[in-house]
Amino acid sequence: MARAFSPKIVTANHLLEGDVIYQTADDRWSRHISEAELITDEAHAQLRLLDASRQANVIVGAYLADAVSGDNGPEPTHFREDFRRTGPSNYVHGKQETSTQPRA
Amino acid sequence: MYRYSEFDTAFLAERNAQFRAQVERRIDGSLTEDEFKPLRLMNGLYLQLHAYMLRVAIPYGTLNSAQMRQLALLAEKWDKGYGHFTTRQNIQYNWPKLNDVPDMLDALAEVGMHAIQTSGNTIRNVTADHFAGAAADEVADPRPYAELLRQWSTDHPEFQFMPRKFKIAITGSENDRAVIKAHDIGLQLVERDGVLGAKVIVGGGLGRTPMIGKTLNEFIAFDDLLAYLEATVSVWNQIGRRDNKYKARIKITVHEHGIDDIRARVDERYAQVRPQFKGVDMALLDEIKTHFALPTFREASVATFEGAYTNDPVFRSWVDTNIAPHKNADHAIVTISIKKHGNTPGDATAEQMRVMADLAQEFGYDELRISHEQNVILPHVHKSDLPAIHARLKEHELATANIGLISDIIACPGMDYCALATARSIPVAETIATRFDELKLEHDIGHLKIKISGCINACGHHHVGHIGILGLDRAGVENYQITLGGDGSENASIGERAGPGFSYDEIVPAIERLVFAYLDLRDNADETFLQTYRRLGLAPFKAALYPEAQADAA
Ligand code: HEM
Ligand code: SF4
Asked: DSSP of B275-301, one letter per residue?
């Protein structure tokens, strides 16, 4: 039997800014993970990743990252994604500079 | 100071114009990322976790005040006001925007600098001792030889498609500050019967298979060195493994064939290639040397220095840790610590860069160096100027007296920036430094090198740290492995794994237990951590690291 599919989001870096972005259900790129589309079906995930990869003049390096549903939309499960949605821990730079992102 | 002949103004301008066009074509969609990525990497532009990163080369770690000021300008204008000095003797900017990079490269070109990376499986930039040209203990300045090697290997037809990349490091001193035993080839300049030559070490390297280089030849006279190195690289080129990226480095070839077999093959090849070298290289070397000529050292009394040393304990402490002997007895080598307790190792603000540039211009014959230990050096300073320099450094948080001490930590960017990381390294370094500063034990502990990498690529040189820390991802949680007894000096050794790893919250207390164990175990205050470790071995340190295991066994 196939293993249960763990929910995913599509994430990438913005081509010009280089910062972390998330694919939304209405096909925008958001800078907030809370607005990401949480994908619970494997076939749909592959499709959405393909949609993302076609936008090569907007984004770089799209991939599927594990996420879970939280109080404010999707939340990361791995610490790497937690850093990506926040910024580095040695300075208040990156996303944490401009917005309040809850830290797990 | 030497300027790369091939990187002259016209060449750089052309390369930058090319890259500007490539960036435009990437943005307008005519280049895909797959097409663009190799082009941007060639120009030092990486994509990290939160942003792009631009890596600027500082050949031989040598730069002048105008260049340092330009680095400050880049930090201020196109980054977040700081730059990160790395173990590769270069500087990284962590926040550039793709659109701005061509302007940044043009600004670098104004002062003869660039971000061009020698990439691919070629002989990479040769690295040299950061005290080169100044150290009291050197036989000769290694930089002209480094530059000769670079010119010889660049565009050498035989060396364009080698099994893997190839790195050479060179030092002019017995005291190895260039970690030559962790390079594919390490060279130590030596003099024998009035003839200058080099000891040749081969097969060192870190990364996932760390190895200490072995002596291939005790002495090769300079007239023969290029021929001998050509023979060495050529043997590896022929028998090195191309089937597996991780087994392709010369360290594996040396390990698999044994040093004696390699030596025999090199000697055979050397006999064939030697007649082809007719001394043209020695003429070139003479010409290169003129670019590395020493300044004319000024003569003056050192009385003010001696007075300050006697009367000012803060100054004395700084001199004792941060000053190294210069070949001119009235001069000194100043290492400016970029390791203030609690700050990111190697990060300097634009303002700090300008202060260091000013000091170099006013007092330091306009020379600065970047060390692989992520500090900045004024290689030539008259001792009478030290009190004034110290006073100025103090005003800008640059006077930390900790060179070679526990807070002088090498840390790679780790998970805070690096896309390849498996764990963070910067906050571990910050916390260790802060903790031992609070304990006020740093000077009592003495010489101790901690080196931290955020993944197995070992950019933080953890294998050769007296205490090495490797950050890993264990089932989705940061986990830190400790190695002990590593050494990057002339007595190089690879650290030994101490046991199971520690979580992020446990790693600093574990280091603290380790250091307290050392303080208990050492014979006397002069026995360093490494000496104590070498005398007693792993067991007593392991007991300190894992007290529960001790209790269980009891
Ligand atoms: C943040 C972006 C960086 C990336 C993506 C990166 C990537 C890598 C990789 C993949 C290797 C292994 C190469 C191999 O063994 O074939 C490596 C080696 C190395 N890196 Fe980095 N690195 C980065 C930053 C740094 C920094 C900031 C430093 C200096 C503090 C550094 C110093 C080194 C050194 C000295 C080695 C050679 C280790 C050896 O002898 O095998 N790197 N790097
Ligand atoms: S050691 Fe790993 S985490 Fe650290 S800079 Fe190198 S590649 Fe990145």
From this structure: GG--SHHHHHHHHHHHHTPPP------
Q: How confident is the model at residue A102 (pLDDT cuts 50, 70, 90)?
A: very low
Edge-first strand listing for the sheet containing B45-47: B45-47, B52-57, B90-93, B82-85, B347-349
- Interchain contact A74–B (C-beta under 8 A): no
B484: enclosing H helix or E strand: strand B477-484
A3 contact B CB<8A: no
Q: Where are the beta strands (DSSP E) in chain A?
A: 8-14, 20-23, 29-30, 59-70, 73-76
C-alpha distance from A83 to closest chain B C-alpha (Å): 7
Cβ distance of A83 and B416 shorter than 8 Å = yes
Give the tens place of pLDDT for each residue, B198-216.
999 999 999 889 999 999 9
CB contact under 8 A, B33 and A56: yes
Per-residue pLDDT tens for A25-55? 999 999 999 999 999 999 999 999 999 999 9
Q: What distance lies between CA B143 and its chain's CA centroid?
A: 15
Structural domains in chain B, CATH included, are 6-110 (3.90.480.20), 142-291 (3.30.413.10), 303-395 (3.90.480.20), 410-553 (3.30.413.10)
Question: Looking at residue B120, what is its pLDDT?
Answer: 64
A89 at interface of B, judged by CB pairs closer than 8 A: yes
B470 C-alpha vs ligand 2 centroid, how far in Å?
10
Check if the beta carbon of residue B345 is closer than 8 Å to that of residue B426: yes
Cβ-based neighbour number of residue B158 at 10 Å: 12
CB of B232 closer than 8 Å to CB of B158: no
Residue from the list A19, A57, A61 with its beta carbon closest to the beta carbon of B29: A57
